[in-house]
Hints:
Oligomer: heterodimer
Structural class of chain B: alpha+beta
Shape of chain A: elongated
Number of helices of chain A: 11
Radius of gyration of chain A: 24 Å
Distance between the termini of chain B: 44 Å
Low-confidence stretches of chain A: none
Structural class of chain A: mainly alpha
Number of strands of chain A: 2
Strand content of chain B: 15-25%
Mean pLDDT of chain A: 89
Largest sheet of chain B: 8 strands, mixed
Largest sheet of chain A: 2 strands, antiparallel
Helix content of chain B: 25-40%
Shape of chain B: globular
Low-confidence stretches of chain B: 12-17, 538-544
Distance between the termini of chain A: 17 Å
Order of helices and strands of chain A: HHHEEHHHHHHHH
Number of strands of chain B: 22
Amino acid sequence: MWHRILLRHLLALLLTALLGGLLGATLVRFAPGFGVDERELDTRLHEDSIQALRHSRSNERNLLRFYADYLAGAVHGNLGVSHSFARPVTDLFAERLPVTLRTVALGLAGGWVLGLLLALPVATLRGWSYEFFSSLACGAFLCLPSAVVAILFLYFGGPVALAVCTVVFPRIFRYARNLLLQTYALPHVLTARAKGLSGTRILLWHIFPAAAPQLLALAGVSVSMALGAAIPIEVICDSPGIGQLAWQAALSRDLPLLVNMTLFVTLVTLAANSASDLTSKALVKQAA
Amino acid sequence: MRRLTLALIAASILLSGVLPAKSQSGGELHFVLRAEPKTFDPMLVDEEASETIRFLTGGVLIRVNRKTQALEPELAASWKVSQRGKKISFHLRDGLSFSDGTPFSAEDVAFTMRKLLDPNLHSPTGDSFRSSEGSVRVAAPSARDVIIEFPAPVAGLERLFDQVAIVSSRSPKKETAVLGPFTVAEYKSGAYVLLKRNPYYWKKDAHGQRLPYLDSIRLDIQQNRDLELLRFKRGEIQLINNLDASYFENLAKEEPAAVHDIGPSLDAEHMWFNQVPAAPIPDFKKKWFRSANFRLAVSEAISREDLCRVVFSGHARPAVGPVSPANLFWFNRSLQPHPHAPQEALRRLQQDGFRFDGHVLRDGEGHAVEFSIVTNAGNKSREQMAAMIQQDLEQIGIRLNIVTLDFPSLIERISRTFDYELCLLGFVNVDLDPNGQMNVWLSSSSNHQWNPEQKSPATPWEAEIDRLMQAQASTPDQNQRKRSFDQVQKIVWDQQPFIYLVNKNALAAISPALANTSPVVLRPQTFWNVESLYYSNQGRGVGQ
């Protein structure tokens, strides 16, 4: 039974990623400015060199053929060569992926800790003033686009991971607060409180297990949230990660790099969602 | 004897003011690369970041002195151009070594030139030498002599060697074995390039101390210009090249001693009308754009002084033509910028059958004169210039629409689809010699932007430009070349295929902690004398 579900998820993940990659490639291929190179305007270049530059990307014009060639290469570990960086995509990923993963992981960890720490007192204390001020503060942060957060960090000089945390935590807070309020209002929790169980015991034995499936679903979504926030933040703060790479690839219509980026982001997002989905299903089944 | 002693004492006092004592050498210089370097191979350099690294690490045979614009011997002790610019012979310095200790010889120069001049390499540096078809002969008759023979004369031949960094034919380290003052020690993609001093660098100062004074240079890869300025203010970086006028003004308020306006640069901001016969624009517009009177009228309707004052805060000069006054030899001094004369512009337009009713300008067939200007999005100064040109043209009844596009889309429009009417861009001039502009002026070239790749010149004046450019390229006589190119400048001034607007000033910021700096107009403005830069006592510790 579990094998089937897992296989179905993996198949869906693979097909969606492949389709996402193809759609991404299609958008780049038909974007204005595709296949042109800034170097064509270099007045030092001989006419032959300009023509060579113009034809250097002719193999990318037939999209399906390009994608088939790309997939054949990817199977053997060859992800192609970036035009804008003149380097193999695998090298670029190997250098930059750890930076982004670190940023996203720290940002997510910080966002979750802060979000939950702020949300718990709302549900446990139930004081209107705390709820009002914490909601107001988080609402203000929620209104800030990632780019604005990045600019603030740029000027005040904070770590990039903290900027991702600043984007993630209000969203975690908002969802976790609502979830905890609902869970604390469940009959068996009320009964436990009436029987005089300690707050920690209620939290660990009654609240978290009941809220776990939804929290896990939120965990899956928060990965794509953090990854999405990391792209503009890395660009603005000049952090040498995947986000900066994606931005430069888009500006130069770097098809091999953009296809890989699309596949990467799709795979990470889907994998995180599938993992949380499967785990929450397992938890629900176990509870039943 | 006493006089000699006194003279020596005076000289040593003078020199001590210019040259650092031994204790003053060392330290790390920090500045920013605004893009990721695409290559460390000096032969394949085609963008600014890689060019910076090539300049700091590469050893060249001949160097253009960025201050005097004269040629100076570097790895070549002497050279001789013969056969009317077809042949060049070098006599090399003795006893030099690459940064890995491999000895430098004529074989390395021959290896570099053979590789560089391979047409299949498609190197901008190598292509600069390609004046005609045919093979180049490179010979090293001795360990210190090299002879290079081209199939046809190459105008300004020796200047081209300023861009040719010699690579080792034998070193296993390939392009990391260099002859320049620094060598690449570390590179982290998207983050930084660390250069360490070349222990085998051959130059010494007047005290006999081996150059460069600095131990290392850290080049942080950073695209964000605001962050670059912020880091300069914090003292984290010591140099900024090509500073924007707005940043210059901002910094001047806080650190007036750090900013330098060096005067007009070689670069020009210019615009041109689309004159491509097959362009997808209405025929009546093509007729306007092909009229020299129309182009001149538009040129005269624009106030260049206002552009300099408002857009560049006074850090620019009205442009005359393709050569900036900063180019001391090639600038045609008999020409002046077109004056702001809207009435004269209207008179010219009336000659062509245009009518101005006080609000709208119409052509002889009754079409209201309206067109769009495209420029690259995100370039604040160009966007402001377009807005000011829009206002100026409104004064003579022309309606101008502004379109900003990202760079790839813009290039596609101006070089592939020709779907544009007027384009505003900048011309970055890295070469003092007009031969570097050959592909702009020849009507058959793909970079002849107003009407590229013509099978035969579309107009008599373009045919004349073709003839003059070929003439200047085929003679080694500099004065004769200058006369030909002066005529080209005059034709361009009369016909306005490119409407030159302004020459931006070269603006730079240099930390007062750095000594022996001498910013110049030519690239690289602030670190052209990098081997002589050092930290003064007062500023010691800033970059160290």
